[in-house]
Amino acid sequence: MHSNKLMPSSKGLEQLLRRDRAIAITALVLVVALSWAYILGGAGVSMPAGAVSGAGSTQMSDMMMSRGVWSGEYAVLVFVMWCVMMLAMMLPSAAPMILLYAALNRKHADGTLRTVAAFVLAYAVAWGGFSGLATGAQWALEKTALLSPMMEASSTYLGGALLIAAGIWQLTPLKHACLRHCRSPIQFFAQSWRGGIGGAFLMWLEHGAYCLGCCWVLMALLCYGGVMNRFCGLGLAVDVLTE
Questions:
Q1: For 125-160, how does the pLDDT look when each residue is reduced to its tens digit (9 = 90+)?
Q2: Is 195 exposed, middle or buried (0-12, 13-18, 19+ CB in 10 A)?
Q3: Could you give the CA distance from residue 166 to residue 114 in angstroms, rounded to a whole number?
Q4: How many angstroms separate the Cα of 57 from the Cα of each of 147, 158, 164, 225?
Q5: Secondary structure (DSSP) of 59-72
Q6: What local confidence, expressed as pLDDT, does residue 59 receive?
């Protein structure tokens, strides 16, 4: 009698796990949509009336209009801005990998939605590390007047160096080695599969490293076109997705 009462809930859980693809797609779409809404809305800051920084630039705060004025609050704001931008730009290209993992994960005894969540969380952690480095680089570039308060390259030498570096990196063997891992998720899982929540986290950290290897120089181009330039961000996101 007691086991019969438990059957409906068990079946309900099984049906929920069978819908993991729909759940994963919905969650990914929601996260990407919210991230782009945050960016297009100005990343939580606003600029004084009349201050403009080219086509597609969003509004900035008074604090951003003063070069070199960095506080703890401002640094956190910039870090969060970079993190959200990376999620908005990189999650669409990672969606096939995540959906494939969700399908494979269901076939394992330890497969749960929590392992899928751990898989995605590790990807966010990897790009969060990049966001921390980008925040530090932005601070240094603003201090040396190489980056304007509106977060655009104010030096033609810096802009040229970023473009040349991005072009060269696209041709390097390391770039293509990382790209092969990103383009071959089945092979990656066959070679690097780890079970459980911890295993999923470590596996995605490894894949996140390959993803960083593919795209970190391209993301640096945001400092050329404008960190908050929506057209620059969209263009880079499309380029990464195409690759």
A1: 888 999 999 999 888 888 888 887 667 788 888 888
A2: middle
A3: 37
A4: 15, 20, 24, 10
A5: ---GGGGSTT---H
A6: 40
